[in-house]
Amino acid sequence: MRDRSLDVAVTGAHARLPGPGEPDKWWAAVCAGEVLTSRLERNALAAQGVPDHVLAHPSYVPVRGTVRDSERFDAELFGISPREAELMDPQHRLMLEAGWAALEDAGCAPSGDRLRTAVFASSSSSRYMARILGNPAVSPETLEALAVGTGRDFMATRLAYRLGLRGPAISVLTACSSSLVAVHLAVQAINNGDCDQALVVAASVGFPQGGYTYVRGGIMAPDGVCRPFDAGAGGTVGGSGVVAVVLRRFEDLGPGQPALGVILGSAVNNDGAEGKAGFSAPSAQGQAEVIKAALRAGDVPAASLGYLETHGTGTYVGDPIEWTSTSRALRESGADGARIAVGALKANVGHLDATAGLAALYKTLQVLKHGQVPPVANFTALNPMVADLRTPLYVPAELERWQGPEPRRAGVSSFGIGGTNAHVIVEAAPPLRATPAPADRRPSVVVLSAVRDEALLAGAARLSEHLGGQDEDLADVAHTLRVGRAGLPERMAVVGSTRAEVAEALRGGGRRVRGRVPREGAPPLVFLLPGQGAQRPGMALPFLRWLPGFGAALEECLGHLEPDLEQDVRRALHDPDFPAARLRETWLAQPALFALEYAAARALAEVGLRPAAFAGHSLGEVTAGCLAGVLDLRTAVEFVTLRARAMHDCAPGAMLALTCSEETARELLAEARSSGVGELSLAAVNGPESCVVSGPTEAVAAFGRLLAGRVDSRLLHTAHAFHSPATEGAARVLRSHAAGRAGGQPSVPFVANARGEVVAAGDQVPLALFADSVSATVRFADGLAALRALFPGAVAVEVGPGQALSGMATAAGWTSVALTPGKHGVDEPALGLAELWTYGLPVELAALVPSANLVHLPGTVFGGGRHTAPEARWETGAPAPSGPAPAPAEPGVPDAPRRRPAEAAVDVAAAWAELLGHAGLSADADFFELGGDSLTSVRLARRLEERFGVEVPLRDLMLARTLGEQIRLVERLTGPSALEASDE
């Protein structure tokens, strides 16, 4: 049994390499031995800015391994302004996206670093910076921003900052071996305890992605073809790419977390000077030693390897040195008689410079995963300079199935100009230690989010397609998306029991909800608590199924009921076959509803949903008072029980719902009285076009006939004329009960029905308030309006059965959600809770999505525009700026040009456009949300001082976050009084 204490798992990976963009198609192309470099057209190269004299040179080779859309960047996702993105090296931008995607692939939500995640980053030299510096009109501010945006000192720390990672952040630069050296350093950091997890990322992207000029005796191929270890080898070919991997100690992986492979050992050394023809020449001794050191570090015999991904540059002299040194190292480490296939990715994609080592590791992981060994592209016959015939190595000429020992193991080499060598030993991932599936297989809640609506829809479409072609357990998919994705503002959730159902819902054909998190964060939440009429048999079952704390809270409440009533309420709540007619009886309906609403509200708080206010309708007012703290639970249960019996004992009556305004309802009631219909009361005003009339059964029936064809009406299922003089007797009973009993002070505001007002937190509330409302008109619409004035932008959720109150709230202009709308049986709350999450409310998704296994799923769909600094585009045909910008005037100097305050709006907006890259903004646009930071604020202050000739206090500018506030600040600083003061 191997000691795994120092083994490090690769848990996530992402690559953008020359060739097909989809990983499966890319791997298929490599397995087919395809050459994925491109012969570039002259017109396209000229359009990218390659000078004519370079293109016309007879030795220019227009070949490169390119990545598509290298200038596209999702700046908004990372909170980066367009202008900052323009002044960032495209390599650094690609690393941000690759790092984000690799963390997602590892099941780690970007920007939610629960571990100490280190960053090790490598890139090639910035040709982008060189292009910009070639512009004679580059301003000092641009140079300042460019140093940070392209400097390799800052690439790892920028990744850590933008991804919210808290481990060490280190840039690694050792030429061609940089990224594999970074892997070694990451392994060491993990095993030394410097971090719990490491993100290793590298990018090499030329600007532009063009060819090269062949130099005789150099390392580049004269014909644009890389032929590693081949008799016709003449050099390498340039390539672009970005790769990221996530590493974690193997023993730290929990059940259900898969690995892509396991690093058993690694080593780094340098050739030194002995035996080298020159600084850039390779050393057989150094290369052999690093391979042997990696085998020793991994405690792995060389004979256990079945594959070795070489550095393989395709140079006529370099390849034989590598072949000889590798053969020697393997023989001396016990591989005599073994057969080890070699790979050379550069033949497919070109030499990716600083990214070459990671790209080689990425390919090797595919070899180990699939058990397939691709041929070396362009290979025909072994280089005759290979002197070492006693070798375990061979070059596969066609795709082979794995023929080596088990478990599958491989080595990866990467050697840098200057002599820094790296080697890594990798093993295929062992079988997953799966998390057992829960016994209760509820439908799965699948959540997605994005920074833009189109990205959300694209991500949903891609996941839908993925589910149609894979056999992953749906619970694993839901769990992975819950824990392994960032919570971005544009959100979607779907519910389904099968992959087909979820795939269909993602396309918009099933149970799907969408929402957006407000810019200012989670909105306030209002609990709507319905009254009698909402009840239905078995109404507790959906809450028991989806709210973990509901059962305990319900039992607490039922424990305060009299035994006989408790038994009836329990049956009514749990049995969907309980007689509905019996549950409509007031003495039973009201205690059952109270118990359900109380338990549901308590359980919702346990999953993160705590209300800013309560709005209860009729009986729901009592529930609201209890939850708000006016009544303790025992007192509330006693009051509700008495209320239910007293109202049940009232004279029979009826209630009629009208679709009209309160004014119209009162006019109709006056007409009814004058027509001798009988005494009717306005029982409730629920909305702008929703009222309820209450009274004797015969009078209500006659009133209904009077309304025929004039106003839509609906008879409610009740045997009493609630909220009318008919219930005054019940009100007296309750007032008598309340006499001498103290009420309490709510800790959360709630609506008082009879007044249609909000009772503020801390107000003293007498118990008689709940008695008075029994016979008074329920002014629910007024209460909602008062709450909305206090909590603009609030979301209302109906905590109880049905959707009557959420419908009223929607009609009043609220965003509202019903937890049990009566459409999807016991699984109704799943979609309602998920919808609240889409609005940004802090729903504990673990309550909806239980822990399961992590799986590799499609990640964020990156979008955004193309970002190229204007300073980098000047030599593509557009005339260069005529010269340097004029020196700015010093602020406060008497003869500095002062612009008029009336021009503040134009000039501040222009400064924002210049520094952030945003134009056409509204007055409430936020400087920092658009990618601004403290350094950009300093530049903005300097710019405004130059334009207006006054000092702009940096603190005041940073506190004035919005465009409108900054315009007002400048107007104040440049107003007549300010100018007079500065002249004194």
Keywords:
984 residues, alpha/beta, Peroxisomal Thiolase, Chain A, domain 1, Alpha-Beta Plaits, Malonyl-Coenzyme A Acyl Carrier Protein, domain 2, 4 domains, 11-stranded mixed sheet, 4-stranded parallel sheet, 36 helices, 38% helix, elongated, disordered C terminus
Annotate the secondary structure layout:
Layout: E1 8-16, H1 23-31, E2 38-39, H2 42-47, H3 52-55, E3 60-61, E4 63-64, H4 82-86, H5 90-105, E5 117-123, H6 127-133, H7 140-150, H8 155-163, E6 169-171, H9 178-191, E7 197-204, E8 212-213, E9 241-249, E10 261-270, H10 284-297, E11 307-309, H11 318-332, E12 340-343, H12 346-349, H13 356-370, E13 372-373, E14 393-394, E15 400-401, E16 409-415, E17 420-427, E18 444-450, H14 453-469, H15 474-483, E19 490-496, H16 499-506, E20 512-516, E21 525-529, H17 541-546, H18 550-558, H19 563-574, H20 580-583, H21 586-606, E22 613-616, H22 619-628, H23 633-648, E23 654-658, H24 662-674, E24 681-687, E25 690-695, H25 697-707, E26 713-715, H26 728-738, E27 750-752, E28 757-759, H27 768-772, H28 780-790, E29 795-798, H29 804-811, E30 815-818, H30 828-838, H31 870-873, H32 904-916, H33 934-948, H34 954-959, H35 963-973, H36 976-983
Parallel strand pairs: 5-6, 5-7, 11-12, 11-16, 12-14, 21-22, 21-29, 29-30
Antiparallel strand pairs: 1-9, 1-10, 2-4, 3-8, 7-9, 10-17, 13-15, 16-17, 18-19, 19-20, 23-25, 23-26, 24-25, 27-28
